[in-house]
Amino acid sequence: MNDLIQISLADRQALNAIDTLERNCFPGHCYPDFFFRQALDCWPNGFLVAKDEENNILGYLLASSSDDPSVVWILSIAVADSARGKGVGTKLISQFLTTLPQGVNQVNLTVAPDNPAKALYSRIGFVEIGFESDYFGDNEPRLLMSYHKSSDS
Questions:
Q1: Three-state SS for 131?
Q2: Residues of the chain below pLDDT 70
Q3: CB-based contacts of 54: which residues, under 8 Å, 6+ apart?
């Protein structure tokens, strides 16, 4: 399946599918639909979608700049249940990392300690650099993970 996955920048036509994917992946704790519309305007180069050969959205990655121009944050990665374990998340992150703007050498993200995606992030090169027990509120712990771009990338 990995060879059939196409990664591209998100566009307005993808927003409904992204919103549906978000609600399915993060029920009760998801971004609202209008956030994605604004994200498209704010961070168009950090908003990627993965599509299958029939143009169905299999996943998305959303990243933003930070107050430090050398650091970006991955705000969210979502992959459809039917596409998990098939390389979609790896391909989204790899594409994002290969297109980092010049001067960006660090990518941060947070992940729930029990989320299986933590293993994916580690395989790609993210390392744990912190922990917050109430990152998103009471009993919402997150690990802070960071990827450092090598100087030869």
A1: strand
A2: 1-3, 151-153
A3: none
Token pair 């599509």 in the structure block, residue:
51
The reported pTM is 0.92
- In sequence order, the 6+-apart residues with CB closer than 8 A to the CB of 23 are 30
Distance between CA atoms of residues 5 and 115, nearest Å: 23
* Of 60, 55, 109, the residue nearest 80 (C-alpha): 60
- 8 A C-beta contact, residue 78 and residue 21: yes
First to last CA, the chain: 27
Structure tokens at 51: 């599509």
Which residues make Cβ contacts (< 8 Å) with residue 14, sequence separation at least 6? 49, 57, 60
pLDDT digits (tens, 9 = 90+) for 70-97: 999 999 999 999 999 999 999 999 999 9
DSSP codes of every residue in 51-118: E-TT--EEEEEEEEE-SSTTEEEEEEEEE-GGGTTTTHHHHHHHHHHHTPPTT--EEEEEE-TT-THH
Distance of CA 2 to the CA centre of its chain: 17
